[in-house]
């Protein structure tokens, strides 16, 4: 760490202890070029902090505006396509589960999720408990008068309002997680895939809880982090995976007490929500887990490409086992990477990698699953070029799945995207996700390439891990060259965590 990039140098430049806000237009060519639309980068004498329109407020307003544009994109379906044949909602790329499940999952008939049996093949609601509660609350707020079409429209609108609140929470949390980098929240706010998929399903609720959990961890509130992760896992399964890389990071830093508090909080948060339903309605409660296991190979996965290319259906149990094996291998690789990296990886980097690994190896990829990764990607690799490359692949997949469904629903007319075209859309999603994973891994192996650490920061979202010393490392990281060891010790002097080198 040079004297020009150390935190002390930043403080001395300002003459106080405040940390200056990083301006992405000074570091990112794409951000600088994009800022020309609003007058160009901030000038040398600008004082944005003195205006009521702070970076966090700008991020929130932009996020809400993009969410509203996503609602506008659903207008053809809201007006007629949801109710006048399945094919139209696919050709207009405006499909949503929400209005359909209002009647199909018993909310229109005031059935109690998990307790009351449903009509048809789905005996119970196939969503986690906290998401089921979210859906039920929305049904309470939906007017019960009028024909079914009007009620389904109102149910979608009520859910859209609740999901917009989740969007605001996500924007605030991402903008505040890296204290000096609030503008990175614009990556989330302006993500096209975020706007397009926000109201397909209820995933934003779990994403908001996860974003709040990461904010709590960045502030050193380990128990609050754990409780929120537990609640997020009660809404969607994926957030619990973040505990895996956190375990390895705490192992490397020797922060066992903090990880224990987080793990206990997660278990407690999950049990508080699940235990009552588990005890009173066990059959309804376990439907989500049995459905996930029994579900066959479905849209968006590379397993579907294999099945379609070979012309053979894949055995569900075999795919479950292979997907689990691939996920275990990916997690093992992330563990080795964490313990051998020349510098301890940032939490956001590893969280993104483990969720991306889960999505890539899973037997289904619904288009709204991209919402899981967008906040993590913004924190892990806040570079507009790489982010937009990945988003291009996700938008291609979003359009591809609806056009493919339109093709399958149009009979002999064959209007839409044929199977080979849909496979290309899946490949675009997979390859761009792998690309973003690759640049994150490169940042871990070459920390000087990590844009977040260019100013001398360690892990702004790391909480108790930020600036902590390593106590367990493997490989070359355990025996750095003498000049590297002295440089690292000198860096710790700047952070005020070690005595000066004699």
From TrEMBL:
InterPro entries (UniProt xref): GT87 (IPR018584), UCP010361 (IPR016570)
GO cellular component, one term: plasma membrane
Region of interest called Disordered, as start-end residue ranges on this chain: 1-25
GO MF annotation terms: hexosyltransferase activity
Entry's localization field: Cell membrane
Pfam families: GT87 (PF09594)
Hydrolase listed as a keyword: no
Keyword set, alphabetical order: Cell membrane, Membrane, Transferase, Transmembrane, Transmembrane helix
Family membership: Belongs to the glycosyltransferase 87 family.
Protein name (Swiss-Prot/TrEMBL): DUF2029 domain-containing protein
UniProt organism field: Streptomyces hundungensis
